[in-house]
Amino acid sequence: MRAEDDDAGGGEFVGARLDAGLRAARFASPPSADEFAAAVEPRNAPAVFRGVVKDWTASSRWDPRRGGLDYLREKVGPDVDVEAMMSSTGHVFYGDLRSHERAGANAAYLAPRFQVLVPFSKFMNSCKSYLRCPNASSDSPKAQEILKEPASSEEGCSSSLESCDQVYLAQVSILNTENKERCSLEVLKEDIQEPTFLRGKPFSSINIWMNRAHLRSSTHYDPHHNLLCVVAGCKKVTLWPPSSSPYLYPMPVYGEASNHSSVSIEEPDYSRYTRARYMKEYSERVILNCGDALFIPEGWYHQVDSDDLTIAINFWWKSRIMNEMLEHMDAYFLRRILSRLVDKEMNKMVQENSVSCSKGTTVCQPTDEESGGPEQLKQKQVNSDSSDKKDSPLQTLEPSTLQALYELISLVHNSAEMVSQNEITEPTSQDAYCKQSNGSKKIAADDSSLLEKDPIAKIILPLKPLELQSMLLAMARTFPRTLEALVLNMLGPIGAEILTRKFDEMDQQATKEQQSEFYKTFYSVFDDQYAAMDALLNGKEMFSFQVFQSVLRQYIGVHADRPK
């Protein structure tokens, strides 16, 4: 089924654009520790394990609908306080600290009204009240009365739990290797077991997650591998691979919620986050019932919908890659990864536009108005410049190549004020790009707009390498000043990138002698050959910077100014 046709209450689905190799594997029985380490974990893709924790004491004794709340309250005791998360946005818990707060001493600076710890026993009592009246709104008089009503002489909801629907026991530690003092529910470790396929893993923490009423967590990723185990209730988990970051608009890497998506899960603003309308097509949803577990690799985005009174345990551990990554290599890996993302985005941009052009879209077929005048004027220009040549190179060109040549000539002759010998005095195309880049940090969400801004690139992109070579040779021999003006004054960043890529493709299809002859003829039209080379290199670097800005925005959530 199509992801966009589904909603928060639907079943499992796989987005149409999610790569098959990234879809969650399903296991009816748990693998061995060796199988998990060799075949599951290295895939860095999710895996679902059905019934793998059904034999835990937690799965049989913690169910709120089968006396689990009394069991948990008695096991933990009356004097244990736990940190809770409170939401100011109802049942949705966003990663933005302005939308939810930690109701604990560690977050005292956030908001004074949330500077309380939640007594675990009283949270259990509020869950029991919810069981007696699950359909009542926490704001209704009846619900308020229930929440305040003591279940025994020592029970009752504190004033901080009067809106218990908005309280979430999230990431309350059962085990924490970095801060043992935070393990307020360590006693519950007796009721869970280390899954056999995780045997030997150096867990950084084991946590409990429990909600009173239905809630939704915002889309985010974790910096560790994660095994999420449901011991009561049901969770619907929507997953996206890290490569889907551009569609999820991650918050800035320097922010307090850098691992969260900026897109609202309830009311996404597609006018602001235009790519987000495709995010579901790259996702997969899995449903976890009591006894099921889900492996969520580090970096995978996930959004979780939890049914009423759902309880889960999760295990976090560092991946092998992160364990083996030495700090003194961070800068190198950062540069390599950014470089790889830039290369990927450049290839994607050029290839997608090339496919679009090959299908005959209007992007590659300028009208007479766009190309600078009617066909009669273009033909007149060619005839005037080549009337004294009996064997004109133009005669060897294919009709489509000749048409492209006409369009280039028209652009050069009609897009700027011309002076003697075709020397253009208007600001260059690259100067215009510089001003545009400096004047605004915002880049269009659709990167194909870069091609729209460069008419030269639109013309040369659909040409085959050898067709372009024959056209450029014809220009060099018949219209040398026009070719010079085109390269030095009109070729924009993406045009420079496409042209030099075409050069590389030409080289692969030509002999050394043919290569030498072509470049000798091409550069002979320039009074300063080094200026021509600089124009091409500067254009390529400017294009790379534009793509670099796009990468930072899509994957890291930040903008970068053009270097001075």
Automatic annotation (TrEMBL):
SUPFAM superfamilies: Clavaminate synthase-like. Residues 357-396 are annotated as: Disordered. InterPro entries: Cupin_8, JmjC_dom. It comes from the Eukaryota. Signal peptide: none annotated. Gene3D superfamilies: Cupin. PROSITE patterns: JMJC. Residues 183-332 form the JmjC domain. Belongs to the JARID1 histone demethylase family. This is JmjC domain-containing protein. It comes from Oryza barthii.
